[in-house]
Amino acid sequence: MSTISDELKQEEAEKVENIDYKMVTFSLAGKDYGIDIMKVKEISKAKRFTYVPNADPYVRGVYNLRGDIISIIDLRIMFNLPAPKREEASFEDMIILRLDDYLIGVIVDSIDKVVGINSESIQPPHPIFGDINIKFIKGVVENEGRLYLILDVEKILGDTRHEEETNAQPQLVKQPVREPEAEQDHAEKTGETDYAFVVETLQTFRDFHVTEYNRNWVRNRFEEWRQQRTKEGAEVQLQEAEDADRFLQPFYSPYSGGFWGTDYCSAVKEILKQLQVQGNVMVWNPGCGAGYETYSLAVILRESFPNSQLKVWAHDNDLLNISTAPNLIFSPAEVADEFEDYTVEGKNGLQFNKEIRDAIFFEFHNVLHSNPFPEVDLIVARDILSFQKQDEQDRLVQEFAEKLKPGGVLILGSREEIVSDMFDDISNGMVRAYKKR
Amino acid sequence: MRVEYINPFVEAAFNVLREVLSEEVKRGELFLKSTSQPVLGVAVIVGLTGDVEGRVLFDMKKSVALTIASQMNGEELQTMDDLAKATISELANMITGQAVTKLHELGFKFDLTPPAIITGDNMEVSNSGVEALIVPVELQAGKIEINVAVRERA
Q1: Does the CB of B129 have a partner CB in chain A at under 8 Å?
Q2: Distance (Å) from the C-alpha of residue B104 to the closest C-alpha of chain A?
Q3: Tell me, what's the ipTM?
Q4: B30 touches chain A (CB under 8 A)
């Protein structure tokens, strides 16, 4: 377990920006293979397939996957590889593939992990490859000292039937499947594989990148998630975008996407007492969305620093979201009572008054591009780091440090954290905050 | 780029183009760009000053420029001669002018410089320190990219 998690960490650390191809790796008869992760719906364990009479020898039968009947193919038999004789009741590792419009399960010896590579490093297969017919191999790639054959599942299992395999005779090897301690090892490894899969799918479905800034939360959440899902009898892995949303639901900071409530406002005010300002208060609010957060912040700042000139740069790269922000209209029920003094009745509903609105610059802007404004006293960047790629996260944190005046305050999402000698942690219960040294 | 600035430019481009070409124009997806990008062949630059500093760049292929110039003049133009260049510059001026008027109505003070037209192959434009908003416009003759790069005066 430790070696694998070490390996995972190391792998994440080594990730460079040109990783653009991910594959699920597994072994067949001791050799390493990979399948494009975009073709993989999930990985799973199963036993007791329903035998289908008169089917090709490599068809192990059909299986009921939560209501969907899918065919199960044994890749080892299909490729004429020795298949260990199995005990009737033992679980086997299975990869569920999504091909065109149907699902198919393939049995492999064991599933390893997810490997990210640069697609340019994939080399074409050499024509004299033995085990598997060459046309089924997309290429060969080397990763951390291991060679992986990347299978072209579409060609192998696609609609065209391959007569040549139907005559293949299975070679059954008489050997015990696994040692008992290996079994336990495997169970732990599956937990790790599930975790790695969750990490991958978060990225695929919601562009959520697990890094040092959020790993502690993801780890804890994964444990909680696994227990909850196991209790419900549901899959641990995230199978669709909705699962990713459910997984991430506790991630978002309080009052995400809405006006801040009284409790959060007072927590932020408490943090702002740490801030020394002279004259102007300059604030940067990247990832402001539709502006609810920015207006809440502006009101709090106005109350905390009544004698200062206030200027808030609010950025988002979602045009649709931010385009309503400058003239945000809302109903009295949406806002906490503290905000009442700062609102005016407009034609279509309640609006913030001119003083607050004039203090905020809403800009359609990508924070990863250059940020052309002077140094700021406060940065409020809730839940935006995690949705950038790893190297971009590092760059953003660097950018935050550069843009902040000494003694300036950085507020992050409640589940995000940074460990850096540039910042002191000044978080209180609800608000995650750092002060620049 | 401030959200308030975006719509005036997009609207002005559509109004003017629809009017001078008397055809339906389609808008592509708006996006932001900070790296340098190739220029298609004919580029008109209009500078902006006032509350902001920056410029608007209208970028199109030579064939598109010729088609538009021909349509606006009511005669077939074969080469990028003075008349064609003046016509395309005027188009850029009209669009930017209308956008600036709309911005004035919203309370922003913008001034513009006379347009400059640049033609040639293998050119690229880079915006150091400002990101550009790209507004792609689809015409029957081809595509015009309107590239707006402005920043607040500090």
Answers
A1: yes
A2: 16
A3: 0.80
A4: yes
